[in-house]
Amino acid sequence: MSKSGGPLPPGVRLLIAARAVNRLGAFSLPFLTVLVSTEFGAGIATAGLVSAAFGLATIPSRLAGGRLADRLGRRHTILLGLVGCAIAELGIAAAGSLTTVAVFAVLLGLVFELYEPPSQAMIADAVEPDEHVRAYGALNAALAGAGVGAGLIAATVGRWDLRWLFVVDALTSLACAIVVRTVLPADRPRPTADEPSRPSDCIESPADRSAWRDGALLAMLACGTLFAVVYLQIMVALPLSLVRRGLDGADAGLLFTTAAVTVVAGQPLLRLRRPAALSAPSALALGYLLLAAGLAGYAAARTLPAFLAATVVWSLGDLLLLGRAYAVVVELAPTAARGHYLAVYGISWGIAGIAAPLLGTQLLARTGVTCLWTVLAVGALLLAAVQLPLGGALSRALR
Q1: Which segments cross the bilayer (predicted)?
Q2: Do 36 and 163 share a domain, yes or no?
């Protein structure tokens, strides 16, 4: 366990570094539809179906990752997911037909989320409860920083051959797997009925307390899904919005880089006295308010500097949101069921991955840029409004 305020444990730092290495190669998926349409002559609709099939497959993948994390072990599940991703990505790179690409895309979806719940659960196992927010913030910052490098690698390799994007992605997955296998501690035996992992587990075992019957977790899942739908619109609709404002759609890359830099540079803010003292509901409400302000800024923006300023604002909200939400879910979970709880909460991103592209493109096409970002800002405000009442319900659930 780490001491409060001290350095994170070496195992956590190594896991975060390994995930950052993996993130450096995680740039191939946005090019899956491009590969399908250019290499195999498929139409846009067909390419979209292949991408949607991948997204749908990630939902059972996340749930399986949580179950395996609690039963098979954290490290074993991470290794299974990373090696499975490498095999599927190499299959896509070597595919000679559209059918083969589709099969490996679905396979990739089925293993793609396996390592997320055990990675998050391993961090929760290794640090004190009051350090969960900082640890998850460090993970998000590392992934954001690696995402900047991933974009540069994609811009270089993608000009050469799209298939090599999947090869490089597979290599980084294998590199991450080697680091995890070599430097992270082996999985500890699961606690038995006679040796509960914490006192509260004497009262109710994970087998008796299904995550799907935990009302507090389901409330977090509902909020997380709405947040994910709003958040993914930034990735989907921002380039199109720039074009409609008469700017270059490629400037979205600059905005995404600005967001990543803001999240990385803002990590020390989480350790200041006032932000650290915020309760979970207050921190989440403030994060959603900043997100709403940034999205409202997009609705009004007409120039690139205005878009940049709005990006910094919502990125500060992102800084407060992601780590804090995972810390709340970990606190709700019985120790031996952390992986399952994190997996159930995490399917919000799978659901949003299917809904967000449909919602964003339809709103943009039918109502325009200003209305799209105004609607999303209202959604963020709604999330801010429910945090304090939700916080009371969470406190009662924890008691």
Answers
A1: 40-59, 79-112, 135-157, 216-240, 252-270, 276-299, 306-327, 339-359, 371-390
A2: yes
Residues 6+ apart with CB under 8 A from 19: 119, 139, 142, 143, 176
In a domain, 201, yes or no: no
- Listed residue (334, 290, 322, 364) closest to 223, CA to CA: 322
Are residues 143 and 19 in contact, defined by beta-carbon separation less than 8 angstroms? yes
Tokens 């429910």 belong to: 386
Mean pLDDT across 34-40: 77
Q: Which domain holds residue 232?
A: 209-399
Statement to judge: residues 373 and 319 lie in one domain:
yes
170 lies in the same domain as 217: no
- The verdict on 151 and 256 lying in the same domain is no
Q: State what percent of residues in the chain have pLDDT above 90.
A: 23
Domain assignment present for 200: no
Non-local CB neighbours of 262 within 8 Å, separated by 6+ positions: 311, 312, 315, 316, 319
Q: Is residue 196 part of a domain?
A: no
Compute how many other C-beta atoms are within 10 angstroms of the C-beta atom of residue 196.
Answer: 16
Note whether 86 and 149 are same-domain residues. Answer: yes
For residue 154 the two structure tokens come to: 């994609």
pLDDT at position 36 over 90: no
Provide the domain count of the chain: 2
- 247 and 392 share a domain? yes
Quick check: 116 and 62 in contact, CB under 8 A? yes
Residue at 339 is within a domain = yes
pLDDT at residue 204, as a whole number? 41
Six-digit token pair at 138?
């460090």
166-191 pLDDT tens trace: 898 899 889 888 988 888 777 664 54
Read off φ and ψ for residue 195, nearest 5 degrees.
-130, 75
> What pLDDT does residue 342 have?
87
The residue with tokens 């500060």 is 316
- Are 354 and 52 contacting, i.e. CB atoms less than 8 angstroms apart? yes
CB environment 225-254: b (16+ within 10 A), e (fewer):
bbbbbbbbbbebbbbbbbeebebeeebbbe
CATH of the domain at 349: 1.20.1250.20
> How distant, in Å, are the alpha carbons of 32, 126, 355, 356 from that of 362?
22, 44, 11, 10
